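Quick question, first post here. What does this chain look like in 3D?
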Amino acid sequence: MAGYLDQYGAGEERRNRIILRSILAVLTIAFVWTLTWYLLLNHHEEGVVKTFVAALKNKDTQSAYRIWGCTSAKPCSGYEYQKFMRDWGPGPDGPDLAVLGLTDSEECNNAVLLTLEVNANRTEKLWVDRGNDTITFAPFPVCPQQIPYEIMAHRTVGKLRKIFLK
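> Answer (accepted):
Ran it through. Tokens below.
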């Protein structure tokens, strides 16, 4: 015959397991959601530059100039189509279609700083404005005014973004 106190505490052990599993599930979901958010944070701006790169690979420099944010009818001040062609058209300093591609992406205030490998000797830092998706050459080699946590996150977890850049 079972004693009065034989089952004492059995319900509490079960409740503790449920609470522990619930906490672990919430923490896992929060971690996965945060990691996914961080990895896809610059996805739209990366897509703009990938479209620019695709136009260059298809040798459609007019479309590439339009994606840059300029048109032949309304050229960008200080960056006319002839200068664009010197930078991005065929030539010794022009893009090598086998090498041309994104290598890094970093959030920087109200824009995204993207690193584009143009050819074996040339790497460009591009600046994509979040507000209007215009591409320009980056005014800084690295993002200014970053807190140490952002630098650490970019140097560690940010390297996982390279999977999405190809």
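The chain is about 45% helix and 15% strand.
The two ends are 70 Å apart (CA to CA).
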